[in-house]
Amino acid sequence: MSRFSAITDNPHEGRFNSKTGILITNLGSPDAPTAKALRVYLAEFLSDPRIVEIPRLIWLMILHGIILRVRPKKSAHAYQSIWTDEGSPLITISKAQTAKIEKQLRDEGFNDIEVELAMRYGNPSIESGLEKLRNKGVTRIIIVPLYPQYSSATTGSTFDQVSKVLRGWRWVPELHFINGYHKHPLYIESLANSIKEDLEVHGEPEKLVFSYHGTPKLFLDRGDPYHCFCQQTTRLVVEKLALDKDKVITTFQSRFGKAEWLQPYTDKTLESLPSQGVKDVAILSPAFSADCLETLEELEVENREVFESSGGDKYRYIPALNDRDDHIKAITALIKPLL
């Protein structure tokens, strides 16, 4: 064999190409609405030190000794109320989003791409998504967590997991990480469009509630920008639609445990509004890019009951942006400059 042949017969030459991998991620869902599946899912979710910042040994004793013995059954009942024939709404919607994102990019001429979906917890996992991209020979990867407002508990945790997986790779790819888009003009436009369409059909409510997923106040005190980004998203949408600021409220939902979380709390706010003469509200949750348990069950059902049992008359939930065309346009606008 000549020296020239030895050089050109490179075993790696055919394995890698110039394609860019795009990994679309979200929080995740249990594989089934059962206590067994919830126990597995919650064990992974609540073991993440980004989620619970309690001394590790103490927390693991509480988690495995108490929470995972009680909470799975209760959570399974909640998931059963929203489960569809296709499975988890979050996973179903995320698949639709991923397919539309890929189609939009290819329609615009970006053909040297491979797109995969992954969840931070549960399936399909971040590890499996990255492996699929690696097996397709990509050498550049763009990570796109669908969390508009950065938080250490969501976007930060995603980065942790991606880093953990890549630590085991011999050849680490060129990596681009989108860490939020809370004020991107097209995201704000998409939110504004969803609200405008609702108002055109149902009329203007007495109060419009922007309900974001909550985090412990301790996170804010330690420098997490999430609270500030939520406030900014609300302000930009209000300005975009020229809404009356006095008719708009920003609240935080889904608190867990006894510690203080970001306030005002969504459920407490809804409970108090009727006594203040507010009987007609519309509510949306801009922190969720896809409808899930926290919107379909907590906002649509639980908080509706809170408001109506406190004397409220009209309550409506404005769906998450899901796979709306203007939402897909906003997400692809984040990706295209990196291709």
From TrEMBL:
Organism superkingdom: Bacteria
Coiled-coil intervals, chain numbering: none
Pathway assigned in UniProt: Porphyrin-containing compound metabolism; protoheme biosynthesis; protoheme from protoporphyrin-IX: step 1/1
Organism: Pseudoalteromonas peptidolytica F12-50-A1
GO BP: any one term: heme biosynthetic process
GO CC terms, sorted: cytoplasm
Family: Belongs to the ferrochelatase family.
Location relative to the cell: Cytoplasm
Protein name, entry field: Ferrochelatase
Keyword Cytoplasm attached: yes
